[in-house]
Amino acid sequence: MPDKDQGRGTLGIIHGWGFDSQVMTGLAAELSPCWNTRLIDMPGYGHNHMTGFPQGIDNIASNLISAIPPYCMLVGWSLGGMVAIKIAHSMQDKIKAIILLASTPCFVRKHDWPHGIESTQIKNMAKRVSTENNEVLQEFAGLTARGDISPKETIREFKLLHKMNKVDPRVLLQGLDILINTDLRIELSELKCRVIMLLGDRDQLVASSTGNATREILPSLQLNYIKAAGHAPFVSKRKESAEAINNSLRACSL
After folding, report:
1. From CA 101, how far away is CA 60, in angstroms rounded?
2. What CATH homologous superfamily does 8-251 map to?
């Protein structure tokens, strides 16, 4: 007889750039009545200590696969959503669904992808992250909160997290390099699992137009928006985000 957690299904939650899995604890708490939630730290973040750091998104995904039980679902925020795509592509038939939370298969603007941000914006952060680590993370928190109905509350929460968050600048640089150079549109189109995209409708880093553009790549994409939310809807609209995730997964009959 399966235990309670198995009956609920396992939901792995992957954080994004700059902040470890603690940033997702509030969302995990909202989801835990319905799912067996598991916070996952990327290499170099939180409890995932390493003497060396994996280069590139493929190696990051490989590092995390051992922490992910078969037939689970994944929620990935921002960079974590890109990692979730890679993991699902590597574990075809063993991942039930992925939820791209304020995430995109291609973060920067290209000639055939006008929905990303300018790569120069990320490159400018990369130039400063080694010497101005704290300032860059604070600026990122501001960008994340922009568009929220109450941006000051989001920034306040990120400031509290920043005090507990210790990340090697080399890890931050590698993450920015991934955001600049990674395009997962082909991998996304080849996924066999359910894919759900949940975007803040005022996100300044992942444009709302990304949703319909991604649906053109993957017609089965289930698309939802959180109103009056920026790049961290799981902070500014935590209950609404959890409800949207729960409803989406139930709709998939998982």
Report:
1. 19
2. Alpha/Beta hydrolase fold, catalytic domain (3.40.50.1820)
